[in-house]
């Protein structure tokens, strides 16, 4: 992050980070964020880069084998040191020299990933690269939940996809995502419902059934608990914001 600050809500955790901080996300979390500091004179500015596991794996081969780090959260943030900031700067500078991108972008990306591996989030990145790591097993279950989020899912079925016992799966899933597996599924449903309400202007009842709820009243209660307002009211407010910006 270059300017401003942001709050991110993951489960019952509230994280706040600002200029000079770097955040690494190793799993597709059910999270919400809001910009907490910005102004027309000093707007919120951040850079984002997709982490390619193959790049991390190639670097680890060159750096030598490392033991699998202990299971931790699926995200983390820390101050970005001068070397990491400099690697970011030189990667972004290629946008002004686009004829160099085909040759230089790969090298700059490798340097940036190397700096991250050598920093406080290195253990998290090593988990991303490992196809057989504990994180990769939980990520596989997360992907399966997102594909089947409208269905009635059991913890046992999720654990089977992850290749773990129910108790181990539940513990590791919550450590990584900040949510239990069923809470994660619920938030996937509610975020999709919010998207549909805003984009499609659909009725709350039809959206509730479409994302897997059997009770509209339960859907409305859980929606308000997560987003702070009933479905139609929340969607209407966000639609007005989108239209005013457009």
From TrEMBL:
Pfam families: AraC_N, HTH_18. Residues 139-237 form the HTH araC/xylS-type domain. Keywords: DNA-binding, Transcription, Transcription regulation. It comes from the Bacteria. InterPro entries: Homeodomain-like_sf, HTH_AraC, Tscrpt_reg_HTH_AraC_N. PROSITE patterns: HTH_ARAC_FAMILY_2. One of its GO terms (molecular function) is sequence-specific DNA binding. This is AraC-like DNA-binding protein. The lineage of its organism: Bacteria, Pseudomonadati, Pseudomonadota, Alphaproteobacteria, Hyphomicrobiales.
């Amino acid at each position: 992050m270059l300017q401003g600050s942001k709050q991110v809500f993951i489960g019952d955790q509230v994280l706040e980070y600002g200029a000079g901080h770097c955040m690494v996300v190793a799993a597709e979390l059910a999270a919400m964020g809001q910009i907490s500091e910005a102004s027309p004179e000093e707007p919120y500015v951040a850079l984002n880069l997709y982490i390619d596991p193959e790049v991390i794996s190639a670097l680890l081969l060159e750096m030598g084998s490392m033991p699998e780090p202990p299971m931790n959260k699926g995200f983390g943030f820390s101050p970005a040191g001068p070397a990491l900031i400099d690697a970011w700067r030189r990667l972004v500078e290629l946008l002004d020299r686009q004829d160099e991108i085909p040759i230089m972008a790969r090298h700059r990306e490798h340097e940036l990933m190397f700096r991250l591996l050598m920093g406080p989030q290195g253990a998290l990145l090593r988990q991303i690269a490992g196809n057989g790591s504990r994180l990769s097993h939980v990520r596989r279950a997360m992907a399966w939940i997102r594909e089947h989020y409208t269905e009635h899912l059991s913890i046992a079925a999720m654990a089977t996809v992850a290749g773990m016992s129910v108790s181990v799966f539940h513990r590791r899933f919550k450590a990584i995502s900040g949510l239990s597996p069923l809470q994660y599924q619920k938030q996937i449903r509610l975020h999709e419902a919010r998207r549909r309400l805003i984009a499609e202007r659909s009725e709350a009842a039809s959206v509730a059934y479409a994302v897997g709820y059997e009770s509209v009243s339960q859907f409305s209660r859980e929606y308000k608990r997560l987003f702070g307002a009933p479905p139609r009211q929340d969607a209407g407010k966000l639609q007005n914001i989108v239209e005013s910006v457009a």
